[in-house]
Amino acid sequence: MGAHKRPSRLSRARAVSASVSALTLAAVGATVVAPGGADDAEAATVSTAALQIAASKAGAPYQWGATGPYRFDCSGLTQYSFKRAGKELPRTAQQQYNRTRQIPGFSREQGDLVFFHGRGGVYHVGIYAGGNKIWHAPKTGSVVRLERIWTRSVSYGRVNG
């Protein structure tokens, strides 16, 4: 009879311990990742870091083919930002589009890539900053800057963690 009570007490103790651990983590601002959610959490961390890195390059001159650290073209900025955040991306906007997981616009999050489409395919890329704005290196004669998305001919891609 005593053996029956012991496992249930142990089970209750484990449950209380798990609850306390989760509450402690929440109180100190830690992230609790559910089983199977590690990839999304890692992707969010990398994307957030990449967004911050791109923003830190505000004012850097545009130069076609440049990949940083002081001059950038559009895909050079995204490649540089993600590489510094710990994730390799290919060189061109089209290659980056092909490498990311495509997501619908309503699911976009800060740090996702925004791809601009034309007749020839993907011609431009930036990093989504929220509020329908992107960080990007627009064109010759301009600088890395935060700007509103100016067209509906875009799609969104998430860089896997």
Describe this entry's structure for a reader.
By secondary structure, the protein is of the alpha+beta class. The relative contact order is 0.17. The longest helix has 26 residues, at 2-27. It has a 6-stranded antiparallel sheet with strand order 1-6-2-3-4-5. It has 2 domains: 1-32; 37-158, endopeptidase fold (from Nostoc punctiforme) (Alpha-Beta Complex), CATH 3.90.1720. Helix 2 (38-56) packs across helix 3. The chain has helices spanning 2-27, 38-56, 74-85, 93-99; strands at residues 101-103, 113-118, 121-130, 133-136, 145-148, 154-158. The chain is globular, with a radius of gyration of 21 Å. Mean pLDDT is 82; it is low at 1-38. A hairpin with a 2-residue loop joins strand 3 and strand 4. The chain is built from 4 helices and 6 strands. Residues 1-26 form the signal peptide. One of its GO terms (biological process) is proteolysis. Belongs to the peptidase C40 family. Residues 44-161 form the NlpC/P60 domain. It holds the Pfam family NLPC_P60.
Oligomer: single chain
Evaluate the radius of gyration. Answer: 21 Å
Structural class: alpha+beta
**Count of spatially separate domains:** 2
Shape: globular
Q: Give me the side-by-side strand order of the main sheet.
A: 1-6-2-3-4-5
Biggest β-sheet: count, sense, barrel?
Answer: 6 strands, antiparallel
Number of strands: 6
Give the strand content.
15-25%
Specify the helix fraction band: 25-40%
Low-confidence stretches are 1-38
**Total of helices:** 4
**CATH architectural category of the largest domain:** Alpha-Beta Complex
Overall mean pLDDT: 82
Question: What is the highest CATH level, the class of the largest domain?
Answer: Alpha Beta
- Through-space gap between termini: 50 Å
Helices and strands, in order, run as HHHHEEEEEE
What is the CATH homologous superfamily assignment of the largest domain?
endopeptidase domain like (from Nostoc punctiforme)
CATH topology of the largest domain: endopeptidase fold (from Nostoc punctiforme)
Family: Belongs to the peptidase C40 family.
GO molecular function, one term: cysteine-type peptidase activity
Protein name: Glycoside hydrolase
InterPro entries: NLP_P60_dom, Papain-like_cys_pep_sf, PG_Endopeptidase_C40
